[in-house]
From TrEMBL:
<keyword id="KW-0210">Decarboxylase</keyword>
<feature type="active site" description="Proton donor">
    <location>
        <position position="96"/>
    </location>
</feature>
<dbReference type="Pfam" id="PF00215">
    <property type="entry name" value="OMPdecase"/>
</dbReference>
<comment type="pathway">
    <text>Pyrimidine metabolism; UMP biosynthesis via de novo pathway; UMP from orotate: step 2/2.</text>
</comment>
<dbReference type="InterPro" id="IPR013785">
    <property type="entry name" value="Aldolase_TIM"/>
</dbReference>
<keyword id="KW-0665">Pyrimidine biosynthesis</keyword>
<dbReference type="InterPro" id="IPR001754">
    <property type="entry name" value="OMPdeCOase_dom"/>
</dbReference>
<dbReference type="GO" id="GO:0006207">
    <property type="term" value="P:'de novo' pyrimidine nucleobase biosynthetic process"/>
</dbReference>
<feature type="domain" description="Orotidine 5'-phosphate decarboxylase">
    <location>
        <begin position="17"/>
        <end position="269"/>
    </location>
</feature>
<protein>
    <recommendedName>
        <fullName>Orotidine 5'-phosphate decarboxylase</fullName>
        <ecNumber>4.1.1.23</ecNumber>
    </recommendedName>
</protein>
<dbReference type="InterPro" id="IPR011995">
    <property type="entry name" value="OMPdecase_type-2"/>
</dbReference>
<dbReference type="GO" id="GO:0004590">
    <property type="term" value="F:orotidine-5'-phosphate decarboxylase activity"/>
</dbReference>
<dbReference type="InterPro" id="IPR011060">
    <property type="entry name" value="RibuloseP-bd_barrel"/>
</dbReference>
<dbReference type="GO" id="GO:0044205">
    <property type="term" value="P:'de novo' UMP biosynthetic process"/>
</dbReference>
<dbReference type="InterPro" id="IPR018089">
    <property type="entry name" value="OMPdecase_AS"/>
</dbReference>
<keyword id="KW-0456">Lyase</keyword>
<comment type="similarity">
    <text>Belongs to the OMP decarboxylase family. Type 2 subfamily.</text>
</comment>
Length: 293
């Protein structure tokens, strides 16, 4: 299997930097699919995968929205992951894990190792508990050609509460990224980029530029574009000029492409499909234009 970094880079190169979030928010699954039930969530998620095909190369399902439906929700997630794999999409699982090493091994078995019940290409990790909690994920990523996505500077308003606090003269998020340097090296692909991805919110373009200086080769996952208010230029602030294009990761959007105008009111599947595929295509075109051709 090729390295995760190469698969992600190739997908973004082919389709553009958009990563489509799969976030079945409470109460927002149209009645067309059966509403906000495990079956409705599954049908909606499968339709989202169909809508992404040929328009973007990467998806990011948010585990919480499936977990809230118990085991039936997790069954829906599994089926959506299988469909995404069959469609050749790169899957970033947004579950924000992070625990002592021995427990982290459990998350590795759930998401990253061969035969994992929730197969994905990479998993989001909260680094708060320390490097030893990230290590099992990185070791598994090396072994199975997967990626590890570490929260660095998140997109939410409270990201400054802890992440921007000074630690020995620099913000904590910078110290975290400095400490990750050896792991960034270990997950480098043939493309030269690393599958030790960093989350840097589109809402903090200055911080993204700083992170790019500290980790020139780490691929970025950039949430906050769309529903959280950031535009394409802000989302690409931490990307690097390569030839005539900005490259260096993916920009995720969930609500803006999951529930665009016209999709909730659609009374046919075709009507829903048109609203959603247009929103995905428009977001992709916006990002591609901002990245340069
Ligand atoms: O790890 C993430 O994906 C993430 C990190 C972050 O800093 N901010 C953030 O919004 N996210 C996720 O990205 C998605 C953003 O959704 P929208 O605001 O609807 O585009 C949600 O699934 C969040 O959980």
């Amino acid at each position: 299997m090729s390295a995760f970094a190469d698969r992600l880079f190739e997908a973004a190169d082919r389709f553009g930097p958009l990563c489509v979030g799969i976030d079945p928010h409470e109460g927002r699954i149209p009645a067309l699919f059966g509403g906000d039930t495990p079956e409705g969530v599954e049908r909606w998620g499968l339709a989202m995968v169909e809508a992404v095909k040929g328009r973007a190369g990467v998806i990011k399902p948010q585990s919480a929205f499936f977990e809230r439906h118990g085991w039936q929700g997790m069954r829906a997630l599994t089926r959506i992951l299988e469909a995404a794999r069959e469609a050749g999409l790169v899957v970033l699982m947004d579950a924000k894990r992070g625990d002592i090493g021995s427990t982290a091994q459990g998350y590795v078995s759930a998401f990253l190792e061969a035969g994992a019940p929730f197969p994905c290409d990479a998993l989001t990790i909260n680094p708060y508990m320390g490097l030893d909690t990230i290590e099992p994920h990185v070791a598994a990523a090396e072994q199975y050609g997967k990626g590890v996505i570490v929260l660095a500077r998140t997109s939410n308003p409270g990201s400054a509460d802890f992440q921007s606090k000074s630690l020995e003269g620099a913000p904590l998020f910078e110290r975290v990224v400095e400490a990750l340097a050896p792991m960034v090296e270990r997950l480098k692909g043939d493309c030269g980029w690393s599958g030790l991805m960093l989350v840097t919110g589109a809402t903090g373009p200055e911080e993204a530029r700083r992170l790019r200086e500290l980790a020139p080769d780490a691929l970025f996952l950039v949430p906050g574009y769309g529903a959280q208010g950031a535009g394409a230029a802000e989302a690409l602030a931490g990307f690097r000029q390569q030839g005539n294009r900005l490259v260096g990761g993916v920009v995720s959007a969930s609500r803006s492409v999951n529930f665009p105008a016209g999709s909730a009111e659609a009374d046919t599947l075709d009507g829903w499909r048109i609203a959603v595929t247009e929103a995905i295509a428009a977001a992709q075109a916006d990002l591609v234009a901002a990245a340069g051709t």
